[in-house]
Amino acid sequence: MVVGEVAVETDVVVIGGGPGGYAAAIRLGQLGKSVVLIEKGELGGVCLNRGCIPSKALIHAAGEYHKLAGLSKLGIELPAGDASFHMPKWQSWKESVVSQLSQGVDQLCQANGVTLVKGVATFLSSDRIGVETGGDFETYKFRHAIIATGSRPYIPPFLEPDHEYLLDSTDALKLQVIPHTLAIVGGGYIGMELGMAFAKLGSKVTVIEAADRILPQTASHLTAEVLKQARKLGMTVKSGTLVESANVSGGQVELEIRSPQNGHERLCTDKALITIGRVPHTADLGLAQANVSVSERGYIPVDNTCRTSHPHIFAIGDVTPGPALAHRASKQGIVAAEVIAGLPSSVDSPYVPYVIFTEPQIAGVGMTKEEAQQQGYQVKVASFPYRANGKALAIDAKEGFAEVIVDEKSHLLLGMHVVGGDASNLIAEGTLALEMAARVEDVVLTMHPHPTLSEVWVEAAEAALGHAIHIVNKPKVATS
């Protein structure tokens, strides 16, 4: 390590090349700023390389494989013999997808004049940062900095992965063989998404969740269909259950678990996947040297321009309080870049959509009924079932419903939620409606194409007004 070299000067240093970091760097380049983007791993961060994209590739492949068993009712007869899933071939396909996206981000950064540096960054002061790059040490002097270092899995010490039997989500997405039995420790969205995917591929999956139900951060009526489908897939769900110890012996994982209903139990499984949660990646960044305040839990407080306690240093994405979602990080990155460039930009919308890629999918934006009531609204709630939608029946996706939360006085839309096929794409309409301060009549007056799943929104909106066409209207919509 060489210390004391002349610092390279730049307008902005961005630490972390994930969805938030590279979006910020590209936008800064567009706005004429000199930018150094520092990433210690692969460009695209966890989301592109080890999280969002690879997991959705597995979920899609598992879903297609699982559909094969039900094709005969659609008139599709397959040749005799059992179908099989070849995990190494899937791994190759996944890597090709990740590589294509990563190369695309690299090209976009270069096209916008972003300087890419691979290394580990540490603040030396509030205007200097040091980067270890393969044995060398480089120093950069900046006018502004953006912290976009993301998050890492939270792993209790007694569940520390050995990456062969005790796995984290990255390990699970690198498996070359589908495990016969798989325990998922943590029934949140990561655990349920991957657990259902492996169940579709043939694993006998057991989900262990400390809370009294799976997906505890999501409204219970939205998760009921997921639990139903999990049981149809042969999954065992042990809610209200704690893992007390884990031991690898004889090529298996032995988990000691405890619950009020079953007492102490021992669960033996081929693999155990730990998906308890994630924590911000802010340790060892030298934030104290940069005079950047950090909460007790490691989060960096920011204002609506993503500015930290130091006026020239910004933070975005999972290191900031709020939902750890890639699209939120990207939006924050663009806002931070524009503020640095002197534009009047801010994160001024409360409408951050979420998507859970379970079976069926869950997506939502805005308030739930309970949240709206807590804020003092008198609420109308109306829903429309997938089973009454022609397209849903035609594509054999009849499980689920769309729901609208409406202010009874003004008819303003307060929340929109959907459980069912393609919910991940359908929620974009809900996000735009809330962002535009739409009333329920605006959805009703918008002509939706037929036959499509998007019609569930207009039908739910009509139900809120008491004149849905394709379901029987209730005499009176429930009001808080």
Automatic annotation (TrEMBL):
Domain (Pyridine nucleotide-disulphide oxidoreductase dimerisation) ranges: 352-461
Domain FAD/NAD(P)-binding residues, every copy: 11-333
Top-level enzyme category: oxidoreductase
Keyword line: Disulfide bond, FAD, Flavoprotein, NAD, Oxidoreductase, Redox-active center
The record's free-text note on cofactor binding: Binds 1 FAD per subunit.
Molecular-function GO terms, alphabetical: dihydrolipoyl dehydrogenase (NADH) activity
Name of the protein described by the UniProt record: Dihydrolipoyl dehydrogenase
Names of the cofactor(s): FAD
Enzyme Commission number, as recorded: 1.8.1.4
Other comment: The active site is a redox-active disulfide bond.
Domain of life: Bacteria
PROSITE patterns: PYRIDINE_REDOX_1
Catalytic activity: N(6)-[(R)-dihydrolipoyl]-L-lysyl-[protein] + NAD(+) = N(6)-[(R)-lipoyl]-L-lysyl-[protein] + NADH + H(+)
InterPro entries, A to Z: Class-I_Pyr_Nuc-Dis_Oxidored, FAD/NAD-bd_sf, FAD/NAD-binding_dom, FAD/NAD-linked_Rdtase_dimer_sf, Lipoamide_DH, Pyr_nuc-diS_OxRdtase, Pyr_nucl-diS_OxRdtase_dimer, Pyr_OxRdtase_I_AS
Gene3D superfamilies: 3.30.390.30, FAD/NAD(P)-binding domain
Keyword DNA damage applies: no
Family assignment from sequence similarity: Belongs to the class-I pyridine nucleotide-disulfide oxidoreductase family.
Origin species: Brevibacillus choshinensis
